[in-house]
Amino acid sequence: MADKKEKKIPKFSIKKCNSCVICIDTCPVDCLSMSVASGGIPNHKYPNLLNEAICTGCGSCAKDCPTDAITMV
Hints:
By secondary structure, the protein is α+β, with helices and mostly antiparallel strands. It has a single domain, classed as Alpha-Beta Plaits (2-Layer Sandwich), CATH 3.30.70.20. It has helices at 22-26, 60-64; strands spanning 10-12, 32-36, 45-49, 70-72. The chain has a two-stranded antiparallel sheet. The longest helix has 5 residues, at 22-26. The radius of gyration is 13 Å and the shape is globular. The relative contact order is 0.36.
């Protein structure tokens, strides 16, 4: 029996993120949002995954990120 391929989800680097929101705009299922991250720059917003179950693991957010702040894990 073949193993089911595990779905990958986005992981965000707050050190690389410039808050451009391209990842939010490119997500086909609207499962990302911007919020203030602990350990980040005060009042600087970063993307986060709203609902892992909704994420399809397509990788569009990571592919379109201009600063390579998103990796699929």
